[in-house]
Design a protein that fits this description.
Layout: E1 2-6, H1 9-18, E2 22-27, E3 33-38, E4 41-43, E5 46-51, H2 56-63, E6 66-72, E7 76-79, E8 88-104, H3 107-119, H4 130-135, E9 137-153, E10 162-165
Antiparallel strand pairs: 1-9, 2-3, 2-6, 4-5, 5-9, 6-8, 7-8, 7-10, 8-9
Length: 167
């Protein structure tokens, strides 16, 4: 089974669209990693996230706004020969990107960001109360670099190939 590097922007964006959660990694002042699963929105090379106004992640980002964000599609267990353990692999697609968090404070821009986040999960339009918008912390991350891969791709000489969902 092979791993393939993906470079096509449309393919990368389709992986992001299929993802329901991203994982945001950051490092505190001692270099200790901290990773959060988060809901997100994506548009025009920008990832939008939201959180409470205060907390551990905000304290970390105030000192070091650099983040690593990962996405992964639903994994599937695949094999080339059901009887050979080393022919098994998890098939999925993943993205790793880096950027710097900027906190959006403008009310109208926060509403736009919330709409982008909600569009990841629903085709509906939403209204937000003024207190909700004012009390949410919006993270805006311009993607500085990105790497995408597809794992568990059957080799060209594969005689048999089975695919079944793990869950």
């Amino acid at each position: 089974m092979r791993t393939i590097e993906l470079e096509e922007k449309e393919l990368i964006e389709s992986i992001i669209k299929k993802s329901k959660v991203c994982y945001v990694g950051m490092a505190d002042e001692k270099g200790v990693p901290y990773v959060l699963p988060m809901n997100f929105g994506y548009r025009d090379n920008v990832i939008y996230l939201h959180s409470a106004q205060e907390g551990k992640s905000i304290r970390i980002l105030d000192k070091n706004p650099n983040v690593c964000i990962t996405f992964c599609t639903e994994p599937k267990l695949v094999w080339q020969n059901e009887e050979v353990a080393c022919s098994y692999r998890v098939r999925s697609e993943s993205i790793i990107c880096n950027g710097v968090v900027l906190f959006e404070e403008d009310y109208d821009e926060k509403v736009k960001a919330l709409n982008i986040i909600m569009s990841q999960y629903s085709d509906r339009d939403f209204n937000y109360s003024e207190p909700s918008v004012r009390n949410v912390k919006i993270w805006k991350v311009d993607i500085q670099d990105i790497a995408a891969r597809e794992y568990g791709v059957p080799g060209v000489k594969a005689i048999k190939y089975k695919d079944r969902t793990v869950f």
